[in-house]
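Example 3.2
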Amino acid sequence: MIGIHFHLISLAVYSFLGVILTWPLTINLTRGVIGAVDGVDAYQNAWNLWWIAYAITSLRNPFFSPLLFYPDGIDLFWQPIGFSQGILALPVTLTLGSIAAVNWVVLTSFTIGGYATFLFTRRMTGDERAALVAGATFVCSPYHVEKVIDGNLEVAAIHWLPWYAYTLLLLLERPSWRWALAAGAMLVWVSLGSWYYGLFAALYTGCAACIWGCGAFRSSEHNQRVLQGARVFAWGTSPLIVWVLALAPALSSLATRAEDGMWDMRQVQYERSADLVDMFLPSPVNPWWGPAVRAWRNQIYPDAPIWNVALGWVALSLGTVGALAFRRNAWRWVLLALACLLLALGPQLKIAGWHTGLPLPYALIQDLPGIRAGQRPNHMAVMVSLCLAVLAAYGVRAGLQTRLFRSSRRRAWIAVAVLIAAVVGIDGYAGPHPIVERRIHPFYATLPPPDGALMPLPLYININRSENLTPQMVHRWPIIGGYVARPPAYPFAQYTPGIRDIQFGEVERHDVVLPTWPESGRRALAAYRIRYITMDLESNKDEYFARVRPLLADLGIPPPIFVDETLEVYAMPDTWPVSPIAFLGEGWQPLERQPDSDVRWRWMGERAEVRLFNPSPAPTPVRLTCWLEAYAHPRPLTWSLDGASLGTFDILSGRAPARTLHLLLPPGQHVLTLQAPATPDPARAGAPISVRLFALDMRSRIDTRQ
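Structure, written as tokens:
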């Protein structure tokens, strides 16, 4: 039994290490964050914690947000929103704000992660002093400190992993359904905090079950070996069963998810796998020798992404001593560390930037759903670091058992303090960190309650910029676009008139859909209830804004309702009529014109889309009229609305008469799909074309009354 004073000492030590290694974060708790690249990821994480608190307190689903990628919203379940961290930080978020919550999670990753590792390694070694050093090796690893510097809270929050490893160890030692359920629940909790760490914990579980099963096989009676080995393996993998059952609906959707919703990152995995040399480098974040390490690394492997997986020289030294001194007790942890290291190396072995082409075990699982969407096998290094902490505890225990320290308790504690100082100074220290502050303009607090959406410019769609998320934590309006790790397909911004034109700062004034610009833009902005357009004048996009302002004038938007040196805000007129709209979607080729004529057209290939939107809460009768012509010879053109067939029409090769569809259009967004046999066109480098559209006009009773 551990005395209460050891619990208090360990909590105090790891809290102090967190303060030292993140300094001056503690004295800037509510002002700013640590975060590379102007805090892009750190402020995204601030939004994540804010959203979790906002969703829970307003009884919303935290795994779906209607506030981003308006009007579709965004499924956040497979995004790295850090739900577990959000729950941990909930009181801080609600009282001190999301900036303080981010910093709280960073600091507690040292306190909670170190304390859990202390308990975990104390169980293995029976020595509180050795466990105290082991906890420091885990939370002060160069890998962890690098993630704190990056501001990537998902992977900086390492503190749930040792708790899971501890419950798994208890299950392997004393198999029971109680421990199986506890370990399974902890695995789910790890996954909800970070899908990377959930995946790596699952792989760790499989490796540990195999190794402990082999241990049971070796130590059992000859006639009981297979049975005992299989029994331990089955219990060891039981948390995976709980994990799969708990996440079954989400995992089934992951297996069938389209590529645009869940990226296939298998090619990226080759570049973002660990290099064998990287594990054994001195800390690249240390302010004294870190620049030299990075310069050398860049020479042998230029522009390598996300490569810091160094385990720390003090941790490696202590772990090596422990593995040798207690090899009869530590062999399982040596094998587990090696297994995790092999997985961190990814599908192929790399040594000092040299791609050997030698396949590794990760290649056997690379094609599985979920794993193929993960882009960072090298983050499996965190599990190597956890195994190394156990070996380091054995190493410290071996040193403390020597005559020099066994005879003097005071001398032993001095040695422990020196070792922790060495871990901090050699493996973990990165110098004082710059604090990134973002000012939220006070204007946003003056906006009325949400009634539509806000369009922040620049939009930063599919660009690693989180600036538009920060003011949303104050104004709470849904916004067009947003920033998530895995951006969804977002045709709304790509095709919708007005939105598309303002986003790119350019317009096609005479397209084939009627009415044309600027009426098309007015109708779309009114139909989708875009209430405000804001310009971030600190974004260094003056040339872009100079192109946008004339477009806003074309639309008839009044002068800005607010402007200063950092922000410009436009309110949309509330007099614009609201009616159903139609615009072209995917599958149409660039606009073409007949010289010296107003005749213009767009060709389609085998398939093209017309997107329809009914802003009314009730179904609305509409009349859709198209002027079409087939390429070379008559072709059948099939129409379907949201997948339901509307029939097939023969389109003539000459200028065909108008075709009219009468639809009862339900509320909301719809896709009208046109399909026709296509023929390669030599004039277009063999690109297939089928039918060209000269004009498309949609009318409703609302339009008729206008």
